[in-house]
């Protein structure tokens, strides 16, 4: 039995034949506390009553998460594509030998950047760290990135620029419950993370969203801009904060820099111009600023609706500018934060699976950072590669003359989740070698040359970092099924076969975490003082935590921001249109997002009967007047077409939707993939694709007779 499985066996409380462990949910970045109980036959879940994020609550996905452990088509043996083109069962030695030999040959023939790695925001900290180390040490490649680039990258870039460090919420989520007003820009937590709503029950909410979501229905004020115009709205709100006398001048003078440059752009966005561009009435703009300005405890929070644009970094920065102008960040009871999406979206971007970063949120171009991490790894700093391609650019380059010829993919399903999905599928199919490690078959494993079955959330030890920067213990209730290995065991097996010392890639999560602590020490995301022992003892530890006597840092920036001068930076940002606007051929905006009962690409949640009963198929929300104009009725199948392709979805008539906008969830496969519509336009700073706005047309669809 490997060390990580031994740890799993001792992490729980045994009662006769039954075992109970305290752990965290399989899904979003809240990482709700749960207790799992196994009586020898079935696994049951209950919410932890004392974990402050959820306090005895779970959403529908959390309650049904144990169903993932027994899905009938669970991957239980490696699969290798044979000469007949079909995937067939293989032994672990055969599969790993094949992968290692082909990776080695491709590196020798074409150089280290001929092989690439793609990770995920759901991997534990240990796995994200080991994956980045494997890419840069065992493979020597710069070509590594992860699907978190599609989630948090714009907010991360804006937060780093403004504050000197990126942490989704630089304060505990429980602080929100004491707020008087919270502005939610592009966030729909009532569906994406329902337990958060108990912390938003007291504040008056200002919701910025093109749709009247479940969150917007609970708002005191709903601002409904046209898709892709959030930046104009944020500039306009800053304009009103200044012209109506709400600037916190003492805060600006003592804690910030760069206001004048930012104001040069906001000065031109008077309320009437903002209304003309966004559709948000002047009166509502003024009311939003008044509510924020007059409240004693107030927050500005952003989500994917603001960030998933080709100008997502600038748009997020514009909302940060508003928060800074009002004096919110770095004060107890007020602030700015971003609602991180994926389960380990925070920790997953801190420890080395981003193209430009090393562990501890160090930049790979920094000589001191390279030297520090190389010393921990026992390698020459000059042997570490430089920055590689960001996620979409990496996927776009696969199988091209100058791009990678092989890809190792863990924790992601880009055939569904990536923008311009049909194109991405073609690029994956063009590879000489595609290796996918996953727990269930997916639309991406169907293209793989080798599929490796790996353990899932309740079968593995490790740590996760939730949206508050709180490091949490994931504990194993069960051993993985026979024939299934952990991701750490997979990376170890490949590294050793490629000539690495066995001790360089341990399989014990505890050993990996102890190494991560050393590698992150002194970095922006410093985990040096966080240990399994402290976490198991019940300590609430938020990074940075530089030594074992440090209590952690639940609230950042109370004394100073993380820039050398201690000041936050305003960003001078200028409005620009989305990369694609409606025209005669594609007259509508399409925007994508999530629904309550499904998660990410749906590879897991689409296997849970209760969740499929609640959200069984791809659908398109459309205003009744718009539907009538194009000959569509409730329940019809519609074809939605952009310049890149078409998707088929069931019509849902929604009277609160804008007449120029349709909405599609992105969880569904095949012809229902919403990302068949989305395009390759990227934010120039963050590399974020423009998921939230595509120009489309809609029409009735009828299956053609064959």
Describe this protein's structure.
The protein is of the alpha/beta class and 706 residues long. Strand 5 and strand 6 (87-89) form a beta hairpin.
Concise overview:
The chain is an alpha/beta fold and 706 residues long.
Count, helices: 23
Low-pLDDT regions: 1-16
Overall mean pLDDT stands at 95
Output the structural class: alpha/beta
β-strand amount = 15-25%
Offer a few descriptive terms:
single chain, alpha/beta, seven-stranded mixed beta sheet, six-stranded mixed beta sheet, 23 helices, 29 strands
Helices and strands in order, then pairings?
Layout: H1 3-10, E1 13-15, E2 18-24, E3 33-38, E4 43-47, H2 60-64, E5 79-81, E6 87-89, H3 92-110, E7 115-119, H4 125-139, E8 144-146, H5 153-163, E9 181-185, H6 189-192, E10 204-208, H7 214-217, E11 221-223, H8 230-243, H9 249-255, E12 256-257, H10 259-266, H11 271-278, H12 282-294, E13 298-302, H13 304-307, H14 312-325, E14 335-338, E15 357-358, E16 362-363, H15 367-377, H16 391-397, E17 406-410, H17 414-417, H18 421-429, E18 433-438, E19 450-453, E20 462-465, E21 470-474, H19 487-497, H20 509-520, H21 532-536, E22 541-542, E23 568-569, E24 588-593, H22 609-614, E25 619-622, H23 624-629, E26 637-641, E27 646-653, E28 661-665, E29 694-700
Parallel strand pairs: 7-8, 7-17, 9-10, 9-13, 10-11, 12-23, 13-14, 17-18, 18-19, 24-28, 25-27
Antiparallel strand pairs: 1-2, 2-3, 3-4, 5-6, 5-19, 15-16, 20-21, 21-22, 24-29, 26-27, 26-29
Helix pairs in contact: 3-19, 4-19, 4-20, 5-14, 8-11, 8-12, 8-14, 15-20
